[in-house]
């Protein structure tokens, strides 16, 4: 099968998300200029550079009370900071609950019963029990083609790792089993890893 996106795919559901999988989930916490905390998961997320460490996520829809975007991007525009919280399998349900279309005044930490902690290098809350948190300062917001598509880039200024996830000096993903986004309503979980050495190593 071949299709041009502008012509449509003719399938019951868009296959694009199912093709680009698995995708790590960036559980993004932000705080508005008014002090209101927000927490929302984004599956268009990844690390993009080592030195300095940088990450990105993309927001692709709008909310009626946020104009051209959603709470996360609106808050980052105001404050210039955000935190990426790593999602473990055990937190799949509270992560999903935080994805609801709640009004801007709703605090998802409270709504989903998630324990928060204050970040160290930025004025923002983080998920206290997450396996890891990446505190970030905004470097740029890029408007992509499409009405509501914004890519947010940030430089990591602080890293939290849960003690039980460190094994022999390495961050062990099997200690918490990262959740990944697939297509449609599907998710996956990392329960197995293997090593490959590059040629010449």
Task: Walk me through what this model shows.
β2 (26-31) and β3 (37-42) form a beta hairpin. The chain has helices spanning 16-19, 71-79, 92-97, 108-112, and strands spanning 23-24, 26-31, 37-42, 45-49, 54-59, 81-86, 116-118, 125-127, 132-143, 150-161, 166-167, 170-171, 179-181, 187-189. It is built from four helices and 14 strands. It has a single domain (15-189), classed as Roll (Pnp Oxidase, Chain A), CATH 2.30.110.10. It holds the Pfam family Flavin_Reduct. Residues 18-173 form the Flavin reductase like domain.
Described by the principal axes of the CA atoms, the overall outline is globular
CATH class: Mainly Beta
Strand order of the largest sheet: 3-2-6-9-10-5-4
Averaging pLDDT over every residue, what do you get? Answer: 97
State the total count of DSSP E strands. 14
The domain tally reads 1
Helix-strand makeup class: mainly beta
Share in β-strands: 35-45%
CATH-defined fold name: Pnp Oxidase, Chain A
Sketch the topology as an H/E string, one letter per element: HEEEEEHEHHEEEEEEEE
Q: Over the alpha carbons, how many angstroms does the gyration radius reach?
A: 17 Å
* CATH homology group: Electron Transport, Fmn-binding Protein, Chain A
Residue runs with pLDDT of under 50 for 5 or more positions = none
DSSP helix fraction: 10-25%
Multimeric organization: single chain
Q: Report the major sheet.
A: 7 strands, antiparallel
Please tally the helical runs, counting DSSP H or I stretches of 4 or more residues. 4
**What is the CATH-assigned architecture?**
Roll
Separation of the first and last Cα atoms: 40 Å
Pfam family, one: Flavin_Reduct
InterPro entries: Flavin_Rdtase-like_dom
Domain Flavin reductase like: 18-173
Organism: Thalassococcus arenae
